[in-house]
Each structure stands twice: as structure tokens, then as C-alpha cells.
Specification:
With 254 residues, this protein is α/β, with parallel strands linked by helices. The protein is built from nine helices and twelve strands. It has helices at residues 2-5, 25-35, 51-60, 87-92, 111-119, 137-148, 173-178, 222-229, 238-252; strands at 12-17, 42-47, 67-70, 84-85, 97-101, 104-108, 129-133, 152-157, 165-167, 181-184, 210-213, 233-235.
Length: 254
């Protein structure tokens, strides 16, 4: 009885995505489990090259996990496989955290919390408009946060439509100077492709700009380095990632 009572419940978690070699999450949670004396827990990466492979896993194998995170390109395509979606994630139409409870997949969006809390200390009174580079699941969370605090987001895309998006080629001096915040929501510049950067007119960036890159590896992407050279305030995505991971852990233990 005494020995049995000392056994700790084993819980398994993971990250779902396409290319996870340079992902932060596994090392973050492995370290966290040691810090909170729950080394019996584990966190692993699940790479799926197609949505069909992902679907097979979600329908047949996933239930031995207690919860998992989702990264690009599956933050939107995972939604049809969920049993429930919390309100904010439903509005945004993007999910990055799933809690498995009573064999039900419940979707959340902790990117919202992570981005808001990491952005808030950097804002200045004059920050009223933003350019959001990319239109994937991450960009929807970013635009939601910006709108909620009174900052008008404009999506920049290679495939503009319905006047909601602007093509990269249409970015000019007036647009760059009218938008004080620029957020890269694309994976461009991520290791090992760290020499790449979004194709925007950096010469129009100045000290009034806040330039935020959701990419965190490398610490300073070419995108951030080029903006910093122009005098802009810069921020990478590491703080956001840490905050959203902590929020995920809070959900998994609710």
C-alpha cells in the first residue's frame, strides 16, 4: 500500500506539426517536468507530412495523451476533428492547444494570451495600425489581439482577396509609415533557413516602428536585424512561446 501510494501518475503530452526539428516546446516541457518534480511525464514531437496522416492519428491513436500543442500548418485544419472549441478559438478559427478529457478533444488558443502579454510592455501611445505578414492560423490570433486593443491590422499576403489583404508588392512608403507595428506571422527566416526574410521595403522602417517576429530560432532573424538597423524596436517570438506554453500547462491541469 505504501509503495503504491507513492507512484506518480504518468501523463504524456506532445506537439503536432510538419517540421519540428528546431521546435522549442519539447525542451521547454521536459525542463518544466524536472522543475516541478514530475519527471514521470513526457513530451514528444509528432510530425505529419499530410493532413490525412494527422487525421489518422487524431481518430485512432491520440487518446493515450493528456493534451498536445499544434503548430503550423495545422492550427486551422485540426478544427473539424475536435469535439469542443472554447469561445476565443472558435472566433479566431485557429487552435494551438488541445486538452483531452473523457476521450474528448477540446481546443483552445493560447497564442492570444502569449502574444498579448509579450506585446503589451512594448506598446507606445502612437501605435494604432499594424501590418500582419501572412494569413495562416498564427496571423489570425495576432490580428484578433491587435483588434481587441484598438490597433487596426492589415494582412499582407501573396494572395490578396476581397480588399482584406494587401499584396507584398503594394507595400510603399506611405503604407509602411502609416503602420507603426509590423508582425511576421510566416515561418520565413526559421532555422535552418535563417538567411531568408520577408520581402518588404525595409528602407521605410524607422525608430517609430515596433517590429515583431513570431520566429524565435534564430534569436535575431534577418527580418529583425534589418529592422533594428533602421532603428526600430524589435521582439522575437520566444517570450510569446513561453507564455502560451505556460497557459497550455494551466489548461491541461484545469
Amino acid at each position: 500500500m505504501g509503495a503504491t501510494s507513492k507512484l506518480k501518475k504518468i501523463r504524456k503530452f506532445g506537439l503536432i506539426g510538419k517540421t519540428l526539428k528546431h521546435s522549442f516546446s519539447k525542451s521547454f516541457f521536459t525542463k518544466k517536468f524536472k522543475e516541478i518534480n514530475q519527471i514521470q511525464n513526457s513530451y514528444q514531437n509528432f510530425e505529419f507530412q499530410t493532413e490525412k496522416d494527422l487525421a489518422d492519428f487524431l481518430l485512432e491513436e491520440v487518446f493515450y495523451l493528456s493534451g498536445f500543442n499544434i503548430t503550423n500548418p495545422y492550427k486551422e485544419s485540426i478544427i473539424p476533428y475536435l469535439d469542443e472549441i472554447e469561445k476565443e478559438a472558435k472566433i479566431i478559427r485557429a487552435v494551438n492547444t488541445v486538452f483531452i478529457k473523457n476521450n474528448k478533444l477540446i481546443g483552445y488558443n493560447t497564442d492570444v494570451y502569449g502574444f498579448f502579454e509579450s506585446l503589451r510592455p512594448l506598446l507606445k501611445k502612437g501605435d494604432k495600425k499594424a501590418l500582419v505578414l501572412g494569413t495562416g492560423g498564427a496571423s489570425k490570433s495576432i490580428a484578433y489581439v491587435l483588434s481587441s486593443i484598438g490597433i487596426v491590422p492589415t494582412f499582407i499576403s501573396r494572395n490578396p482577396e476581397n480588399g482584406v489583404r494587401i499584396h507584398y508588392d503594394d507595400l510603399n512608403k506611405d503604407l509602411m509609415e502609416a503602420n507603426q507595428i509590423i508582425v511576421n506571422c510566416t515561418p520565413i527566416g526559421t532555422m535552418p533557413n535563417s538567411e531568408k526574410y520577408p520581402d518588404i521595403p525595409y528602407q521605410y522602417i524607422n525608430e517609430t516602428h515596433l517590429v515583431y517576429d513570431l520566429v524565435y530560432n534564430p534569436e535575431k532573424t534577418k527580418f529583425l536585424l534589418k529592422a533594428e538597423k533602421q532603428g526600430a524596436r524589435i521582439q522575437n517570438g520566444l517570450k510569446m512561446l513561453q507564455l502560451q506554453a505556460e497557459k497550455s500547462w494551466e489548461i491541461w491541469n484545469s
